[in-house]
Amino acid sequence: MSAQFLLLTAFSNSFTGGNPAAVVFTDLNQSEEISKNIAQNFNQPITAFVSYQPLAPSADRPSKAVAFSVRWYTASRTEVPLCGHGTLAAAKRIFERADVAQDTEIGELHTFAHGVVTATQRTGGFIQIEIPATETKEVSPEEFTRISKVLNETSGRELKIEHIATGGKGFEHHAIFVLDEQEDLKNLPVNLTSLHQTGFHTNVYTTVSSNTEERFVSRMFAPGILPGDEDHVCGSAHCLMVPYWYKRLGIDLTIEIKAKQVSARGGDLTISWNSERDKIMLAGEVVILGQGEVKMA
Predict the structure, then answer these.
(1) Of 1, 212, 268, 273, which sees the most CB atoms within 10 A?
(2) How far is 260 from 267, CA to CA, in rounded Å?
(3) 185 is in which domain, residue-wise?
(4) Are residues 142 and 233 in the same domain?
(5) Distances from the Cα of 73 to the Cα of 88, 172, 186, 196, angstroms
(6) Alpha carbon 59 to chain centroid, angstroms
């Protein structure tokens, strides 16, 4: 038994940039062990498993819509509840499927933990996804001192740390570390063995941008979960960062902004925030790297 797959990279227009992902179209009722084995064999930051799902009637949904169920697994065989770049990659392939109408306006991706994630096509080949936002909660002074010590150890010097916060419901294992703009985040050394001591599985470093092209930059580390332990471009990290930076910088909610992840591959995101609906919108480009068939068992 085999299934179609694609290798793609999200949030970039270059095959050497963005965040790679594998997308496999299969029956999600299959054994979870099969999905874990395939994700491990692909050895990509994420593998998205996608299955067609009939649409239930809804007056709130555009008539030109299509729905799929999705689950995401890392190369370390870990299932993750939400993956932004994996969603963008899956949406790219869904919109280009021969059995999906070319004038389809919206793609619904039904997740097991975060409800329905939607994707839309934009001009210029961009795809936009809508995912949950979460308000961050500043850590206590004692936790700030403890975590700051860990972060200083990971970089071998004392960092200029302005703010440390955790995510809200569904993002309790995420933390953001806001550094001073003078810190060179792109070239910041991070000892991943020491970073385990923060106690979070998603560790997001971020600073305000020093140029006018984007408003903030970031890097994300998940030691022991991702290949290489750093995520090239992390969509779910922006669930925390977007509300934080919109508030801190006083950005008008009607304005789209740019952000950049400054990992070695790097990625570019166009962002907006709907605070009333607790949603963020992330738009980016996707490049197809290859395709074929994968043996399922």
Answers:
(1) 273
(2) 6
(3) 137-275
(4) yes
(5) 15, 19, 27, 21
(6) 30
Q: Is 128 helix (H, G, I), strand (E, B) or coil?
A: strand
On whether the CB atoms of residues 164 and 142 are closer than 8 A, the answer is no
* Count of the separate structural domains present in the chain: 2
For residues 59 and 148, membership in a common domain is answered with: no
Confidence (pTM): 0.90
Query: What are the pLDDT tens digits along the chain (297 aa)?
Result: 888 999 999 999 999 999 999 999 998 888 899 999 999 999 999 999 999 887 665 656 656 888 899 999 999 999 998 899 999 999 998 988 867 777 787 888 988 877 889 999 998 889 999 999 999 999 999 999 999 999 999 999 999 999 999 999 889 999 999 999 999 999 999 998 899 999 999 999 999 998 888 999 999 999 888 778 999 999 999 999 999 999 999 999 999 999 999 999 999 999 999 999 999 999 999 999 999 999 887
Distance (Å, whole) CA 224 – CA 266: 21
